[in-house]
Amino acid sequence: MERRDLATVGDVIYDYRFNMGSIKNCSFVYPKIVSLTNKLTFLKEKGIVDVLSISSVGPGIFAITKNKNKCVNAFKEAELKVITTEIENNKYRIIKK
Q1: 82 in a domain, yes or no?
Q2: What is the pLDDT of residue 1?
Q3: Containing domain of residue 73, as a range?
Q4: Which of 37, 42, 66, 91 has a CA positioned 20 to 30 A from the CA of residue 50?
Q5: C-alpha angle with apex 59: 77 to 26, nearest 5 degrees?
Q6: Quick check: is 24 in a domain?
Q7: Structure letter (DSSP) for residue 95
Q8: Residue 39 CB partners (closer than 8 Å, separation 6+)
Q9: Which of 87, 9, 7 has the alpha carbon at shortest distance from 43?
Q10: pLDDT at 17
Q11: Does 25 reside within a domain?
Q12: Tens digits of residue pLDDT in 26-70
């Protein structure tokens, strides 16, 4: 992270989530998450995304990428609702009381 190498951080996350059984262990929340994420693995394996993971224990699936269109299309082909946003690297601040 210090080197701003998000893809390597993504490799660690991917390995834990997809190769060490983390997603399967979290599938009690949403059993279809295993098959859904399997449809998206090519995004990380082909270098289309830097990070591909699930949120906490799911069922949200997210990606961090510079190839937004390819990623959005893959998520839509998997019949997922897609929300896109920009990364926010600023410190926490209260915007409304």
Answers
A1: no
A2: 66
A3: 6-77
A4: 91
A5: 120
A6: yes
A7: -
A8: 74, 77, 78
A9: 7
A10: 95
A11: yes
A12: 999 899 999 999 999 999 999 999 999 999 888 999 999 999 999
- Helix then strand count (H, E) for the chain reads 4, 2
Tell me the two tokens of residue 59. Answer: 């069922």
What does the mean pLDDT of the chain come to?
Answer: 93
DSSP 3-state percent helix, strand, coil across the chain (nearest 5): 45, 10, 50
Look up residue 42 and give its DSSP letter: H
Choose the weakest-confidence range: 2-6, 21-25, 43-47, 83-87: 2-6
- Largest pairwise CA distance in the chain: 44
For helices 33-45 and 68-77, what crossing angle results, to 10°?
150
Domain count for the chain: 1
